[in-house]
Amino acid sequence: MKINNNIHVTDELISKYLAGEADPEEADALTGWLQQQGCRDYFEQLETAWNKSRRETKPSFDKATAWNNLQISKGAIPERNAQSKMSTLSPVRIMGIAASILLVMASIVWVMRGTETKVHNKTAITTGETETISLPDNTTVTLFRNTAIDFPDHFNKHMRNVTLHRGEAFFRVSPDERKPFLIHTPAAEIRVVGTEFNVLVNNGNTEVSVKEGEVKLYTDRDTVHLRKGSLGKVTAGQRAIDLGKITDGNVWSYATRRLVFQDSPLQQVILDLEKSYQCTILLRDKKIEKCNFTATFDGDDIDKIVNLIAEILNLTVRKNGQTFILEGEGCP
């Protein structure tokens, strides 16, 4: 199997990952390897076999008894005679003893793993409304409309893994340097320790914009570190990461409900408001689109916002359900 980050991905490493015992570097190598064609199918086959084996009832096991039986069966000797008698053993005999010891230790590990708490995956899906969920580590995720995310009911001791299948989500990750937070998307992986950022998954593409802290965005061919105010985009099938700066400061306003407009075109103001609030804003006259608007809103009600826009731009507003209609002469 391919080497990622100088770590060879083997069945043993995959087993460690499934058991929650892989270290962050091994988990990184595995997630990169999964991007290769056919690898995810192979991984899922092993995962299915692993989950099936864990469901089976494990026989009781006594480490002390097993060890004693091993010593007796192999003719174990007191420590003071160990060196002289070991020298008389044939290589085949030595290999047999070593294999038996490994078998006993493997059995011990198997039984200990059987006592671990089984992980159950959960799925959160939004349709017509935005929703905020809390993860087991107190990380909060605000899911935009038509978004789907998978996450476990508890994280393992080395890594916090979630999968964003589609849609858009704003993450406020709870800091934990010992346990990085990893987001899997169709086009890339995102790794952080504790920060705030937005992820958009659309038609297989992945776009990450950072509000606070630093985010590592990577594919099997490229890696970048994104800091506050920057964004990275991975186009499906390309794997190379395009870098840029955030041009719309309201990109995550659907989650924060904080909107800042600085001489912004009214058409852009409307787009940001419609994304942040479940509403529709119509302009009766095309000339109104030429108006620019400056204001800051922080958690304000949408009715208050639209009425303020109408007042500042000398417009009238009519409301029908969650649809607002603005009309007037427009701006000079």
Task: Please name the defining characteristics of this protein.
332 residues; alpha+beta; 9 helices; elongated
Mean pLDDT: 81
Q: Which band does the percent of strand residues land in? A: 25-35%
| Category by helix and strand content | alpha+beta
Give the termini distance in whole angstroms: 66 Å
Number of strands: 20
Q: How many helices does DSSP assign?
A: 9
Radius of gyration: 28 Å
| Overall spatial form | elongated
Unreliable sequence segments: 57-61, 69-87
Would you give an account of this structure?
It is a single chain. The chain is α+β, with helices and mostly antiparallel strands and 332 residues long. Helix content is 30%, strand content 32%. The chain contains nine helices and 20 strands. Strand 14 and strand 15 (241-245) form a beta hairpin. Helix 1 packs across helix 3 and helix 4 runs antiparallel to helix 6 (91-114). The longest helix is centred in the first third of the chain and has 24 residues, at 91-114. It starts with a strand and ends in a 5-residue tail after the last strand.
Set down the secondary structure blueprint.
Blueprint: E1 3-4, E2 7-8, H1 11-18, H2 24-33, H3 39-55, H4 63-73, H5 82-86, H6 91-114, E3 121-125, E4 131-134, E5 140-143, E6 148-152, E7 160-172, E8 181-184, E9 189-192, E10 196-202, E11 205-212, E12 214-218, E13 223-227, E14 230-234, E15 241-245, H7 253-256, E16 258-265, H8 266-276, E17 280-283, E18 292-298, H9 302-312, E19 316-320, E20 323-327
Parallel strand pairs: 7-8, 17-20
Antiparallel strand pairs: 1-2, 3-6, 4-5, 5-7, 6-7, 7-10, 8-9, 9-12, 10-11, 11-14, 12-13, 14-15, 16-18, 19-20
Helix pairs in contact: 1-3, 4-6
